[in-house]
Amino acid sequence: MTRGTPRPRVLLADDYPEMLKAVSRLLAVDCEIVGSVPDGSTLIETTLRLRPDVIVLDVNLPKVRSLEACREITRAHPEIQVIMFTALDDPDLRKVFIDAGASGFVSKLASGELLTTIKRLWAERG
Length: 126
Hints:
Strand order of the largest sheet: 2-1-3-4-5
Helix content: 40-55%
Mean pLDDT: 92
CATH architecture: 3-Layer(aba) Sandwich
Oligomer: single chain
Radius of gyration: 13 Å
Distance between the termini: 13 Å
Strand content: 15-25%
Number of strands: 5
CATH class: Alpha Beta
Structural class: alpha/beta
CATH superfamily: Response regulator
């Protein structure tokens, strides 16, 4: 992001605290991390309260499943970009989440692509 350009407000959702910390560190320079949540029901509640620009969502959250959370959030708030972040690189799974409203699908094994994807989506917003 360039100076003077607002940074995207990012909400992180993953049930592994170490992953939340690592992703937060990765994104913190270029993004405003507004929060992190460990499960799908907390994600939905927190999204309504914080209205982030981007959600980085693990594919396998407990309580409300990630797929249902993605559908609910993108239906209610189409302006929020949801990026699926997973160790699974499955084209069928990717299609299911994109069909559910996700804007991107990034492998945890290529985590450097996460910031690139956020920057691209942020730039496309205009």
